[in-house]
Design a protein that fits this description.
There is one protein chain. This protein is of the alpha+beta class and 469 residues long. It has 3 domains: 198 residues, no CATH class; 84 residues, no CATH class; 121 residues, Immunoglobulin-like, CATH 2.60.40.10. It contains 16 helices and 16 strands. A hairpin with a 2-residue loop joins strand 4 and strand 5. The radius of gyration is 33 Å and the shape is elongated. The N terminus is likely disordered.
Length: 469
């Protein structure tokens, strides 16, 4: 890959129309609609997507995720990373060209700039012209709209963590917390500077994706390329003149360079600066139409195709990535589908290993904590499995409200004559009264003094300094 980018030259991408630009604007509209609308959608009176950090609850439509569900986030991150590998191996930088937030919002900023200051040549002339009232007015309008868009993007992002109605009320009344103000101004500054000033530099300098794409691509990867055999040698052609044989199809108009958001010349081969936006394809096709030549001089294709060979879609790395993706997605769907919105924790009484009652019973005391991770209240029945013990609890079933941690103390009693083991293993089970499929199980132990008087005295003397293991 060649590196031809001029860091000193400001880039003025020219407006282009075509099939791929239309696809890109449609996808941009869909992504932006989802991004801006999600915080305002409500389900059962609450925000459909809300990351409630103070209460440690993540609401994703009808599912509430807790810190205990970090496992799902890990699987999701692995899936997204593998999806990036898969799509890069198959079709290059589709993510960068069509879905990356930096690309999407930079396109909006450039569109605003083009609407106010004009297309490529008008913007270049304006920037090199002396400062006049017209130039000052246009610059003020442009930056004001940029800041307004930056605020809208920042407000929406923070609204995923703070309900938008509350956030709007706090802004209107000047009651923003320090955290809210910090994140709002941070993202306003980030969007404004990244998309308004740095633009392509964000893709070329801090983003590592373009630099390691060579490790993910091969000769069969679908990329945007220039057909050298068809295009060279270059030469100017007038409209309707057709192919003369003196030169190739490339008319050397440099329109592919003028529309490129990173300012590269795709005719120089695959370069890490290329973000796969396909603007050069639309620009070149429009020129080919005007001069009466076949479209596709710049097009999607693999290096094998551009070298005169054929490409293979199914190859080992693609099959491996696809297999891992299917396994991860199946695992994630299975875990989410089978997920139980109930968590139980059992703590043994640390002050006494066991107690003896006057009627010949052995008691073990436990503290049970039940976490209802669902978005509705539940009634749970507490049960014991694996030991013939009598369960003594204040209320059974227990009533646990949504998002509540319910704590209660329970005792297990076994007839001393029936105890044959010093340590018996069993499990507490908490089961929903209305839906037995919602239940949680926690293993524990029951301790009993199964030993003679002399052995018990010796054991107590040996273990006086610490609890019995």
């Amino acid at each position: 890959m060649s590196e031809t980018f001029d860091w000193q030259e400001k880039i003025y991408p020219k407006k282009v129309k075509g099939k791929f630009r239309t696809i890109k604007w449609v996808l941009t509209s869909v992504f932006l609609a989802i991004y801006f609308m999600l915080p305002w959608i409500k389900i059962d009176g609450r925000q459909a997507v809300l990351f409630d950090v103070p209460d440690r609850k993540f609401y994703i439509f009808n599912i509430v995720f807790w810190p205990q569900d970090l496992f799902y986030l890990a699987i999701l991150m692995l899936f997204l990373a593998m999806a990036l590998f898969f799509f890069t191996a198959v079709a290059g930088r589709l993510w960068c060209g069509y879905a990356c937030p930096q690309t999407v919002f930079t396109d909006l900023f450039i569109a605003i700039e083009r609407c106010i200051e004009g297309d490529r040549h008008e913007r270049m002339a304006l920037d090199h012209a002396p400062w006049t009232m017209k130039k000052i007015f246009e610059k003020i309008i442009k930056h004001s709209v940029w800041l307004a868009l930056s605020f809208a993007v920042s407000f929406t992002f923070v609204a995923y963590f703070v309900p938008p109605q509350e956030l709007g009320w706090r802004i209107a009344n000047g009651n923003l917390t320090a955290a809210h103000a910090f994140w709002l101004f941070l993202f306003i500054a980030t969007i404004y500077s990244f998309c308004g000033f740095f633009k392509e530099l964000i893709c070329l300098v801090p983003c590592p994706y373009g630099r390691f794409q060579s490790a993910l691509c091969d000769q069969d990867t679908l990329i945007i390329g220039y057909d050298v055999k068809r295009g060279e040698p270059r030469g100017h052609v007038k409209k309707g003149e057709g192919t003369t044989g003196a030169h190739g199809d490339c008319v050397d108009c440099s329109l592919c360079v003028h529309v490129c958001p990173t300012g590269i010349d795709i005719r120089n081969g695959l370069q890490y600066e290329c973000i796969g936006c396909a603007d050069c394809i639309d620009a070149c096709n429009s020129v080919m139409k005007r001069v009466g030549k076949q479209e596709g001089l710049i097009r999607y294709g693999s290096l094998n195709i551009f070298n005169g060979g054929s490409t293979h879609v199914l190859r080992p790395r693609v099959v491996l990535y696809a297999f891992i993706l299917v396994v991860l997605m199946a695992g994630l769907l299975y875990k989410v589908t089978m997920r139980t919105p109930l968590e139980i924790d059992v703590i043994r009484n640390r002050h006494a290993l066991y107690q003896k009652t006057a009627d010949g019973k052995i008691l073990n005391i436990y503290t049970i904590k039940a976490l209802n991770m669902d978005n509705k209240d539940h009634s749970f029945m507490v049960k014991v499995d694996g030991i013939p013990a009598k369960l003594m609890i204040g209320n059974n079933p227990i009533q646990v409200k949504k998002g509540e941690v319910y704590q209660t103390t329970v005792s297990l009693a076994i007839d001393e004559k029936a105890t044959t083991k010093k340590v018996s293993h069993f499990a507490f089970i908490i089961e929903d009264v209305d839906n037995p499929k919602i239940k949680a199980r926690r293993e524990s132990t029951f301790l009993a003094p199964v030993m003679g008087f002399k052995e018990e005295v010796i054991w107590k003397q040996k273990n006086r300094s610490g609890p019995r293991q």
